[in-house]
Amino acid sequence: MPLAETPVIKPIREGPKRIFERELEQANAALRESEERYRTLFESIDEGFCIIEVLFDPSGVAVDYRFLETNPAFVKQTGIEEPVGRRMLDIVPGHESHWFETYGRVAQTGESVRFEAGAAGLGRFYDVNAFRIGAPEQHRVAVLFKDIGERKRLEDQLRRTAEELTETNRRKDEFLATLAHELRNPLAPIANVLALLRHPNKQVSVETLYSIIDRQVGHMVRLVDDLLDVSRISRGALQLHTQTVELADVLRRAIETSRPLIDAGRCQLEVETPSEPVQVDGDPTRLVQIVANLLNNAAKYTREGGHIWLTLRHEGEWAQISVRDDGVGIPADMLERVFDMFTQVDASRADGLGIGLTLVRSLVSLHGGSIDVHSEGEGRGSEFLVRLPSIG
Hints:
With 392 residues, the chain is α+β, with helices and mostly antiparallel strands. The chain is 45% helix and 22% strand. The strands form two sheets. Strands 6, 7, 8, 9, 10, 11 and 12 form a seven-stranded mixed beta sheet that branches. A hairpin with a 2-residue loop joins strand 9 (307-315) and strand 10 (318-325). It is elongated, with a radius of gyration of 39 Å.
């Protein structure tokens, strides 16, 4: 009995239509998957992302742009709510033109760019990547960006700190050189006096020699006292011994202290005080130091035969002490620096360590007051105005 023949199964051939449909389904699935990945990335990144349409005027100059699409981080990075469909100049009327110019070049040339720029109207600074998408005639640009304003602020702060440290080191070196000079100046005459005292045939009286030593030692004591005061103030260790003080008495004592320097320069000092008493709660010794340092400063920077005006006034709740001169004046770029440590407006005319005004500002601040300086420029004199809380 013959065996049955095994049937031959022929594959069913798909028609062209079915093949097309299957390939289309696969393509659509791949597209959906790609779009899903894009959407996930688009919505999850911390950087702001947007697609814009660059707008040109009839002459081809980029003058604005319209937001077509943004990601969720866009609002965080810009502070702009619901931007889609709106023009940038409608949102920020003063937006800088360089943004339009840059995006316009990207839209026209297709060349991607990366740059950093500020947006003053948004109060931000950005790191930006921009590239063209779509057909050239659509003028569409994709922008990936991040606000780096805080980083820029830190960088600027670090730069300023480095510059300040450099300047501080420079002034410190100058201070050390000045200190050595100021200490050596009185030591030389003291050494000469000691040599004369040892000489059996000295022709100068002992009293004269002693007065030289006394004067030079006094100068050194004042230098050291200023250094100690600066140290105490910087450490917060300076203690004020306050009491009710009549400022007219303070002015008289300060004039007595500064009189030798004023007379040495043949300066004419004019003093004006009110008839009624002006009182403050303060340390009389430190208040005298404030006024005397300002008078000394005026005498140092006033030409021989110049004028110094010392004025006391009572203005509302404040007592005001003004020290004005017609001396060398202060350049505009020095006005904010005159109170800095070791600063001297004109080193060729000044002596001392350049810490007198620093001490004045610190002592005034300890008394709850303030000090300002005014000058119309070089050769036009200067004025220091101290304000202290008054009593009564």
